[in-house]
């Protein structure tokens, strides 16, 4: 089987670029995961996976990552992305939710909070702690708002 | 290299949610893969990969999965998702096809059957067996129809 | 951790199909990666990852792959996909860019070249070499243009 991740952090950043993909790339760089290979996952925090804000991941690594992203080429538009980790008990799995849209960071955060509540309610487990990060961006030319939970080892 | 999966099952389920992502999450829970990390793949059944309907996958695991999904927020709309596995011989690879759309489960199933036929015809190998699962859902508020082939070890 | 890829190649191909997914499948077959499981990544070439144009990957393998793809069901429409690998020094990571759109292969290639320049400029490293592949396709019924950098071991 593929090894189950043991560490994570939570990050969000926005950036401009000359194209949609380079705006995304620039947001990843600001979010500290621009030089790795994101493998998008949906989106469970493994049991005993520990928060490590100082994680340094070698360039080119394959990094399972839950993320939300929005790219816009409408100058003046406000875009936002948010992620949230919901935790019950340390030795139980948690849930990761991601969101992106044409709204403020505050709205994106509130949405994530409600999504985590719904996810835990559906699973019948207590939501004891949440970690939410969001960013917003007013598009100049081509902008990207990005929020992610990279999972690592 | 990444280890090649050895087991699989076929699943489909639909659900409502308060948001698009929680509708998706709820459909995954019903489909028995709500507490793992789906890694979306396109979409070959490895040689000698065995059907195991009783697979229990530990929470948080990274699970390579071929899937189709549709989310709709149009009340009254009929949505469907289907997946199919086409098999030639046990020791040869198979092909997985996925589909989702605004149609019935029956239409989605028929589409998958035709897609598998085309996939085997293009490869010049005989299609000896198919396993197809589909679900349909009449949207109440925000609904998701989901069908998947999780690959495991 | 997941093992970091050590080899890669660059490929592009276009095809028709009876459906969107089988057009995609047929393009993958032409691109020599139709019988493996693509895991989509964003999109760094690991340090010391070597070009190997004769790579043969076993059927069903999980293959981290950066790719761009476009599918169109508008007869007569010109579609294109391109990928590019930008390399600084062999022992440093490189950057992969992908693009697809309603344009010619030449336009897609030019776009990739500019995206690679921007990506290296943002990282403050020299872009010493690029490998770009593109394809274009005039849609008959349902067509797919696909370009990829499969990463392997």
TrEMBL record, chains A, B, C:
The keyword Membrane does not apply. One of its GO terms (biological process) is L-arginine catabolic process. Belongs to the pyruvoyl-dependent arginine decarboxylase family. HAMAP family: PvlArgDC. It comes from Carboxydothermus pertinax. It catalyses: L-arginine + H(+) = agmatine + CO2. This is Pyruvoyl-dependent arginine decarboxylase AaxB. GO terms for molecular function: arginine decarboxylase activity. The keyword Lyase applies. Its cofactor is pyruvate. Transmembrane segments: none annotated. Keywords: Decarboxylase, Lyase, Pyruvate. Its EC number is 4.1.1.19. It is an enzyme of class 4 (lyase).
